[in-house]
Amino acid sequence: MKQLRLALLGFGTVGQWLAETLHTQQAWLQQEFNVVVTLISVATAHNGLIYRDDGLDIPTLLDLVATRQPLNAHPRVTHWTNVLEGLQATGGDILAEATGATLRNGEPGLSYIRTALAQGMHVVTSSKGPMALAGLDLLSLARAQSVQLRMESTVMSGTPVLSTIREGMAGTRIRAIRGILNGTVNYILSTMAMGHDYAEGLAEAQAQGYAEADPSDDVEGDDTVAKTLILAAAVFGRALTPEQVVRHGITTLSREQMQQADALGKRIKHVASLRLLSMDGTEVSRETADSGIVPTLLEARVEPIAFPLSDPLARIDGLLNAIVIQTDTPQQVTVIGPGAGRFQAGQGMLADLIAIAKSQ
Ligand SMILES: NC(=O)c1ccc[n+]([C@@H]2O[C@H](COP(=O)([O-])OP(=O)(O)OC[C@H]3O[C@@H](n4cnc5c(N)ncnc54)[C@H](OP(=O)(O)O)[C@@H]3O)[C@@H](O)[C@H]2O)c1
Hints:
Number of helices: 14
Oligomer: single chain
Shape: globular
Bound molecules: NADP nicotinamide-adenine-dinucleotide phosphate
Structural class: alpha/beta
Strand content: 15-25%
Distance between the termini: 11 Å
């Protein structure tokens, strides 16, 4: 039986779901994957990090959170107010990082992930910030340390996009990707496609709890840009900055533009696209790009595009997300699924954990 010692940083919606699932599914995980996961440390912003060498009791932790008691009320724990120091002192085999890392500087997740990788821990993360801003660096660090860094939940939440590309499509050469990667924006556009204007679509999304009071991260495209940067690093091995992504949000789209598209048999969608181009702007194969003989660039765009109904993305409605992956072999793979939710994000982290356990 494989034994994995897990450090969990971030014990909010996603972290608690993951911990609870590891507890309730413990017997099944042992039977199915031959792995025992022991949660040795948990951290939050307000509680710092708690550690217990022989494992924390997950129901006790969940009860402490539910009754708003401090986590260090858990029996026989060592406590650090500084999470990074706690992580350095206690380590583990895997870090599950589920803090609310920002897109501005990737912190606190970025420092936690770097520290864990540097001390030889595998890492699974649901935080977009660190992977968007330093994805390639972190992946290189993981490779240098001979450990895995997995991030399924960062793009389309737990819908298996990255593992489809990495494992399922291993051996194909991916030359382009385009996708609907933000459920809130797609919900607003779907509402607009039914005859409403942008303000009405946003109000409806807010009323349903799908859009924040300040929706700018979604509607201006920042969230989709972050996911685009993660795909650039994870799929194309290229480090792009947010400024290198051509970005247009949906706030200026009018009811008339939606109606015009409809009259032409098209649907307007907010789409992230990545494709390999030669310096004169023509599309090149991945093989050519990888050979390095011809200089190439990775074009990255986030913008509204009108698609004919024959395009798979045209029919993705509401909160659904989808990604279309194009390879050198003239083959197109489309993955469709939910792009948000505590269950989905936690599931992505669980799948990443199991993938690491299976490779041990
Ligand atoms: N929820 C989803 O549907 C979803 C989907 C995909 C990806 N994600 C990503 O997953 C991550 C976690 O999301 P969530 O919904 O679980 O967020 P959340 O409910 O706000 O929980 C965040 C957790 O991180 C902790 N935290 C914040 N700063 C910290 C620090 N400096 N050190 C240690 N812990 C810290 C918080 O502690 P306190 O409670 O003490 O503040 C809290 O326990 C985010 O990056 C989010 O973008 C979420």
